[in-house]
Design the sequence.
């Protein structure tokens, strides 16, 4: 039985990947600061303290690396921004450092990254993996995160980095936030692009990257049809039974409420999934209506 070790396993994407891998007959364990907290098999690690149970890496046939502090969980103070960066870079650095000591190394290392690499707002231009990074805070975080993760390749471990877009799920992530107010409305102009992907498809994409030996390097992990914030919010409101008001939440109000983080929701990226589709990956929910129907109208 193949052993898959996951960092960030208790999160939205990690839980979905765990479920999918177990359905496929693989044994899954998580790396966690509090392994005793979960019924899932777990090993201890603390990236901030540079500690990791060595048994975890000897146990693992492959690693899926998702860990990182939530980008939208708290207002971006200087301290919070440092936490967002450190939680990603420290984890990757610790895994690299400890993997050097392991004789029979895992065969694959599949890491999360983010479309934030391209910058807060790339307009309606379609962006690809080879495009340059943005110059804002999140772009800098992703650039350093990827640089730390790419060192794993030096250990002759097949390494894949998936630049994840906006994950659509019923009970978490961006969709829950968009529909939280009593009335759904576009953010700012509503014309900014959202490169979305259904939760089940992002889980399947990680497993696809894990199982296919020919996949390595950088891939955008987004659905095939990005849409504007206004289109996504309107459709989500209709299918969830929420009232929709076609008057954008003013940008200045968002900036007051969110500070620098407002740039993340007022900007957007239209990101290409072409490279991943070229590996033979097929979306189950490639159409927005189909994806939202699955999330909101399941009985």
Sequence:
């Amino acid at each position: 039985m193949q052993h898959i070790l996951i960092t960030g396993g208790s999160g939205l994407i990690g839980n979905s990947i765990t479920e999918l891998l177990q359905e496929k007959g693989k044994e899954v364990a998580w790396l966690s600061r509090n392994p005793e907290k979960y019924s899932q098999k777990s090993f201890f690690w603390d990236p901030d303290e540079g500690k990791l149970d060595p048994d975890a890496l000897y146990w693992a046939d492959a690693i899926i690396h998702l860990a990182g502090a939530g980008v939208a969980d708290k207002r971006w103070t200087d301290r919070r921004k440092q936490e967002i960066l450190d939680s990603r870079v420290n984890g990757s650095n610790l895994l690299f450092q400890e993997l050097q000591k392991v004789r029979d190394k895992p065969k694959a290392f599949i890491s999360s990254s983010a479309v934030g690499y391209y910058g807060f707002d790339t307009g309606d231009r379609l962006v690809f993996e080879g495009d340059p990074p943005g110059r804002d805070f999140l772009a800098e975080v992703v650039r350093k995160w990827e640089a730390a993760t790419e060192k794993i390749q030096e250990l002759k471990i097949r390494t894949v980095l998936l630049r994840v877009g906006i994950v659509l799920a019923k009970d978490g992530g961006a969709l829950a936030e968009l529909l939280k107010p009593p009335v759904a409305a576009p953010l700012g102009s509503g014309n900014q692009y959202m490169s979305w992907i259904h939760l089940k498809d992002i889980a399947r994409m990680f497993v696809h990257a894990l199982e296919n030996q020919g996949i390595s390097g950088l891939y955008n992990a987004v659905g095939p049809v990005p849409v504007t914030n206004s289109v996504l919010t309107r459709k989500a409101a209709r299918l969830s039974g929420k009232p929709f008001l076609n008057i954008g939440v003013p940008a200045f109000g968002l900036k007051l409420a969110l500070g620098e983080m407002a740039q993340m929701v007022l900007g957007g990226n239209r990101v290409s999934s072409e490279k991943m589709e070229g590996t033979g990956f097929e979306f189950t929910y490639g159409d927005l209506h189909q994806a939202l129907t699955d999330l909101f109208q399941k009985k």
Notes: The CA atoms of residues 10 and 37 lie 10 Å apart. The first strand starts at residue 3 and ends at 7. The chain has eleven helices and 14 strands. The chain has one domain: 3-296.
